[in-house]
Amino acid sequence: MASLGICALLLAAAGCAPAWYKRSADREVYGILEQKEKEVPGNAASYEVERPRRDPLADCPAADPSDLPPVITKPGEPPAAVPDAEQYRVVSLAKALQIASEHSREYQNQKESLYFSALALTLQRYAFNPQFFGMLSGEYDNTDLGDTTEVTGETDFGFTWLFKTGARLSVSLASSFSQFLKGSPSRAASSVLTASITQPLLQGAGIAVTEPLTQAERDVIYQLRTFIRFRRTFFVRVLSDYYRVLEQRQVVDNERLNYENLSILRERAEWLGQAGEQSEYEVDQIRQDELQAENSYVTSRQSYENELDRFKITLGLPTQTKLMLDRHELERLDTEGVVEVLLPLDRIEEVALAHRLDLMSQAGRMEDALRKIKVAENDLLPGLDLSASVSADTEGDSRPLNFQARRADFTAGFELDLPLDKLSERNTYRRRLIDHARATRDYDEARDGIVRDVREAWRQYERARRSYEIQRDSMKLAERRVESTTMLWEAGRRVQARDFLEAQAALVRARNGLANALVDYKVASLQLARDMGILNVGDDGELQESFDEYN
């Protein structure tokens, strides 16, 4: 029964092993990332690769009927089916950024790439730790028709240890035993203890040994910088897409309002036409514009629904998810305004060159290439290794651990490998020299590309800022035109229908243009901060420009 209990415990331990290995890997990887994060300027973020299981919309409020896109119903037509607003959830901008950080497939892939880089580092670090091994074997032998029964066993335990100097230490203890259970009642046991060490003095010593570890350490830094850069780019895109959906929703509202205004105008024109105060030609003009307005509304609503579906995929949500975006976010953006950039262009370029993480990584790769040249130079040296070993056994003694110094053997020596055939090493060395020259060119190109990026981003910001000011003035002018033509119309003054229609169309264009210009202005500001490398990103994706710190 005791044996069965031990077997059950061993099986249970084996069943828990995969979960234990997973926890062990996570603990070591997240520890590495927490340590490396201190070496990389940027914002803290969660690196957990396990996605949350909770409903991402659970804490979002239900939609109000006014949040749903309006539906046009013409006189005499049956009312269109209106969706139940209670089934929809309203997602704020902050909530959308949080959902994207937890459920976006693209974001998840980047976190996993970061995890893999740290996981690879654990293996390189492990290479310089003692690596233990153990083996047990046993055999039951029944021979001579049951006259002789023997049980034999062998064990082999030990470890190997690679040092950063290139030295390798190996220690092993091998034992064997036999016991006759039937027949001759003899028993035997013996062991052999062996230790050896080898130290390269030329080829294979020093930097050549530690290079894989050094590169793995730096690769985690590079991947961490890539992840931070990705977060900035990704969340700017999510914010931009969020506002674009709201912008398109506002276009839907503007087109519906334009259609309703033209419907009222058409009814009044028809009444005036019947009274002989409006020409049939002008009435037809208004009817034509009303039909065009209806078509524009239908087209804009389709575009809005398409944009919303695409945004759901960006967030990592199913396309069928019933959600609406908070229309008050555009109002808040208009009220809060956009951070004004007062930095001159030369200062913007200076800040970008000092803070862009991808340029830092490119500079690091130049150092990597230079270090690999030294490794290749080491490979060109002759091989000269010193070695020593000692072994002791217990032959002739049935006690497996009865080692005695007089039975120990000690050997020492050296091995010289003359550099008579180094063609492969020569080619590698030449390749490393070219790789360094190429890495230097890549750095120069990356530097020029960053300067170009921020110059383009600054020009885009200036254009968006000026466009916003123009559209704001255009909106005021369009409102005055509609107001003046409406007053003249209602006062019975003679107003050409075309004048009224053009004023109404100008107002629709101005409203749509103002919404577009406001979003462009905000996005351009964030993109400039991103390309300068100074965009702060919170754990859940909150974005904050920090231009004032560099004035």
List SSEs in N-to-C order.
HEHHEEEEHHEHHHEEHHEE
Uncertain runs: 1-10
pLDDT average, as an integer?
Answer: 86
CATH superfamily of the largest domain: Outer membrane efflux proteins (OEP)
- What fraction of residues sit in β-strands? 15-25%
Distance between the termini: 79 Å
Largest sheet: 6 strands, antiparallel
Order of strands, main sheet, comes to 2-3-4-5-7-8
Helix content: 55-70%
Indicate how many domains the architecture comprises: 2
Q: Can you describe what's shown?
A:
There is one protein chain. The strands form three sheets. A six-stranded antiparallel sheet has the order 2-3-4-5-7-8, with no helix packed on it. Strands 1-6 form a two-stranded parallel ribbon. With 551 residues, it is of the alpha+beta class. The protein has helices spanning 2-37, 93-103, 105-126, 207-274, 280-315, 328-336, 345-355, 357-379, 423-490, 497-532; strands at 89-91, 131-143, 148-162, 168-182, 187-200, 323-325, 383-393, 409-417, 536-537, 543-544. The chain contains ten helices and ten strands. The model is unreliable at 1-10 (pLDDT under 50). It folds into two domains: 21-73 and 82-128 and 204-382 and 418-550, Outer membrane efflux proteins (OEP) (Up-down Bundle); 130-162 and 167-203 and 383-417. Helices cover 58% and strands 16% of the residues. The N and C termini lie far apart (79 Å).
What key phrases describe this protein's structure?
single chain; 551 residues; alpha+beta; two-stranded parallel ribbon; 10 strands; 16% strand; disordered N terminus
Outline the secondary-structure elements.
Blueprint lengths: L1 H36 L51 E3 L1 H11 L1 H22 L4 E13 L4 E15 L5 E15 L4 E14 L6 H68 L5 H36 L7 E3 L2 H9 L8 H11 L1 H23 L3 E11 L15 E9 L5 H68 L6 H36 L3 E2 L5 E2 L7
Parallel strand pairs: 1-6
Antiparallel strand pairs: 2-3, 3-4, 4-5, 5-7, 7-8, 9-10
Helix pairs in contact: 1-3, 2-4, 3-4, 4-5, 4-8, 4-10, 7-9, 8-9, 9-10
